[in-house]
Amino acid sequence: MTLRLYNTLTRGKVDFEPFDRTNVRLYACGPTVYDRLHIGNGRMLIVFDTLFRLLRHIYGADHVTYVRNITDVDDKINARAAERGIPIRVLTDDMTAIFHEDAEALGCLPPTIEPRATEHIEPMIAMMERLIARGHAYVAEGHVLFDVPSMPDYGRLSNRSADEMLAGARIEVAPYKRNPGDFVLWKPSTPEEPGWDSPWGRGRPGWHIECSAMSWKHLGETFDIHGGGIDLIFPHHENEVAQSRCAFGHAIMAQVWMHNGHLQVEGEKMSKSLGNFVTIRDLWATTSFGGRAWSGDALRLAMLRTHYRQPIDFTIRALEEAERTLSDFAKACGDVEVGAPSAAFVEALEDDLNTPKALSELYALRTSDPAALKGSLALIGIGLSAATPVREDAPPELETLLARRKEARAAKNWAESDRIRDELSALGIAVKDNKDGTVSWERKL
Predict the structure, then answer these.
(1) Where would I find the beta strands (DSSP E) of 19-107?
(2) What is the spatial distance between Cα 181 and Cα 176, in angstroms, rounded to a whole number?
(3) Maximum Cα interatomic distance, the chain, rounded to a whole number of Å
(4) H helix intervals, 155-237
(5) I need a surface site. Which of 43, 101, 330, 341 has the fewest CB within 10 A?
(6) What is the distance between the alpha carbons of residues 276 and 274, in angstroms, rounded to a whole number?
(7) Contact assessment for residue 390 and residue 439, using Cβ atoms and an 8 Å cutoff
(8) Neighbours of 153 (CB within 10 A)
């Protein structure tokens, strides 16, 4: 089957044919590293990691380039560093390290290239110079601004009128703007703020130009797929399109634009004010969501049960169901070697990453072809080696105790680890720590 993807730009599925089958190029917007990422960000990571894996399966691992950036210059970063009283670079390095740990916990492969915005100031300046020379940007009071009316079809990606775009964006009112919707490419920096020398004075880039410059630097003036969360369509991705197309004179920036849907928690929009703001770290490294830590495989499976373009309700029940499914699959597979993924499974993924349909194809493989079951799960980044069998005779507190013990061992809190082992022993459970970091258990005789 031909790979078909839903293109936000055309609002329909298209047969995907890369510019170059020997180098399929994918870009996804990475984090702004001022805080820990929430599980909505986690969904985006899982979706585009799954796409990355599928492209590698179709075209070969050496023929796919995945760029996922790090935004390490931003006013939110400046404010958080000042709030904590630490240097900006210390904050961004710490948050980047935490992000990498979270992505690994979710089973995500490292991208082929992970550029940092602060290392790409020169290409940003070069793009701005091109935009000014081509009549699409102008300089005013130390700022460089994109001239929105200079691009007749601005708004095509988000399918919004000029009035809708003005209403939907956080428009900064400034006397130096020619038009209310013009957006900043470069702005002056105070002595206390990070800044770089430029033809327009010392300053720093706007958010949108960063991704345009990094994708250009590592993927070219045009490339195959650009992805991100649905909340990025406007203004971020719309402005990326404007900058890149107008700087280089092409009809497109990326062939296909893909966006994953919104995430809510237990039926409500996630927000700190509602007390349901959940970080990726809360899920895998603490017991703050559902009173226990969750395996990366369970988190990933719970996300992939919903089609990436649909909104998802992230619940404790969904995680529990995912762990039961993984346990069932683990028992079915046993020690069988990983085989080739099921053809029906791959065909479902090739239909715009239809993971719900793909997963539904797996249940029959439990008895007919466990090797294909294992290979299919591996294709989407789910392994079974760490799945703890959930037996009917297991005490109800078993999973929580095992998770807490794992957390204690990760923190090298051996006293707490031993205490929990003794608590499990009192319940008639013997645990065994294996060399690969997994834990098995059995009823003591």
Answers:
(1) 24-28, 64-68
(2) 12
(3) 81
(4) 162-168, 207-219
(5) 101
(6) 5
(7) no
(8) 10
* Distance between CA atoms of residues 395 and 418, nearest Å: 19
CATH class, range 295-387:
mainly alpha
Nearest CA to 342 out of 366, 309, 324 is that of: 366
Is the pLDDT confidence value at 115 over 80?
Answer: yes
- The partner residues of 432 in beta bridges, in order of sequence, read 440
Nearest to 259, CA basis, from 296, 281, 234: 234
Between CA 401 and CA 223 the distance in angstroms is 48
Task: State how far the Cα of 42 lies from the Cα of 279, in Å rounded to an integer.
Answer: 8
Residue with tokens 């899920």: 283
Copy the structure tokens of residue 75.
């006013």
Q: What is the DSSP string of 341-353?
A: PPHHHHHHHTBTS
Tokens representing residue 329 in the block: 């699959």
Return the sign of the alpha-carbon dihedral for residues 300, 302, 307, 308: negative
Letter for the amino acid at 402? L
Global pTM value: 0.85
More confident residue, 409 or 315: 315
- C-alpha span between 135 and 287 (Å, rounded): 55
pLDDT value for 156: 96
- 4-260 falls under which CATH superfamily? HUPs (3.40.50.620)
Residue 235: cis peptide before it, omega within 30 degrees of 0: yes
The residue to which tokens 């988190």 are assigned: 299
Show me where the domains of the chain are located. 4-260, 295-387, 396-445
The residue type at 411: A
* Cβ-based neighbour number of residue 363 at 10 Å: 14
Query: pLDDT class for 388, splitting at 50, 70, 90?
Result: very low
Q: Output the six-digit token pair for 81.
A: 């560093």
The neighbouring-strand residues paired with 429 are 443
CA 191 to chain CA centroid, Å, is: 34
Query: CA-based angle 43:66:121, to the nearest 5?
Result: 100
Q: What pLDDT does residue 212 have?
A: 98
**Shortest CA distance to 215 belongs to which of 73, 67, 30, 72?**
67
312 bridge partner residues: 263
Give the DSSP letter of residue 237: I
